Amino acid sequence: MTFHSPQTLKNIAELIDAKFVGPEDFQILGTNEIHRVKAGEIVFVNHPKYYEKALNSDATIILIDKEVECPEGKALLVSEDPFRDFNKINTHFTRITNFSEELHDVQIGEGTKIHRTAVIGNNVTIGKNSLIFPNVVIGDRTVIGDNVIIQSGTVLGGDAFYYRKLEGNYDRLISVGNVIIENNVEIGNNCTIDRGVTDSTIIGQGSVLDNQIQIGHDTVIGKRCLIASLTGIAGCCIIEDEVTIWGQVGMASGNRIAKGSIILGKTGVNRDLEKGTYIGMLAEDFRTYLKKEVKLKNL
């Protein structure tokens, strides 16, 4: 999430009542999760296991639960509860409406047709010559390009599935990101595409999604990808251009699939994959899989 105007380290420290390490006028441009964080942004960390990763990330401001040695050129915000205070910062700078307010700041391009039963949130942009079918839900801050087709029952911009366990209950990390659907994308019936926690979930130009597909928060689908029904892709994945994913594929969070790969039906993806064709519960090379099957049958 990018702030509307740059903030200072002192401003943010006062907002969350935290101690800070660094110049009080140290500039802060926004917040982000560690997999998408950029220079000038805050990342949070609340477990020693991940301190080093956060401190050495591209983030220049680390919201942390213990004062540690600060890397050169960076700053710290020392908080009792970084998870809570990350939420506090994000919601302070982002208006959360949850469809509870009248429609405002919606831009719709020439030639676009939207069925009267569709529900549209606030700060939504839809390009030219797009088709929005009945009972589609488009959440706040969603950006939809030109010549996009979104079929019935699809939800764009639901909350991220991102929680911590706190005092026996689940505490949500509030989603202030959005969904971006690029030009010439087709999305089938009853798909669900979650918005980013602090960044964008992106469906690349020319990609086609079948029915009943789940795309997790902050995942990026490349250009001209083809995804068949009942596929579930967790958050923070990178699917490069021209990848084909067949039905009932399940993909764990944080994985990258190389350009031009093919993932066959019912495959489970739990690691990064180089270009190739894959199958199996723990995605293996398709030719290797076939050779193994032949050997097993000949035993």
Topology of this structure?
Layout: E1 2-8, H1 9-16, E2 19-21, E3 27-31, E4 41-45, H2 51-55, E5 61-64, E6 75-78, H3 82-93, E7 107-108, E8 113-114, E9 119-120, E10 125-126, E11 131-132, E12 137-138, E13 143-144, E14 149-150, E15 155-158, E16 163-166, E17 169-172, E18 178-181, E19 186-187, E20 192-194, E21 200-203, E22 208-209, E23 214-215, E24 220-221, E25 226-227, E26 232-233, E27 238-239, E28 244-245, E29 250-251, E30 256-257, E31 262-263, E32 268-269, E33 277-279, E34 284-285, H4 286-297
Parallel strand pairs: 3-4, 4-5, 5-6, 7-10, 8-11, 9-12, 10-13, 11-14, 12-15, 13-18, 14-19, 15-20, 18-21, 19-22, 20-23, 21-24, 22-25, 23-26, 24-27, 25-28, 26-29, 27-30, 28-31, 29-32, 31-33
Antiparallel strand pairs: 1-3, 2-6, 16-17, 33-34
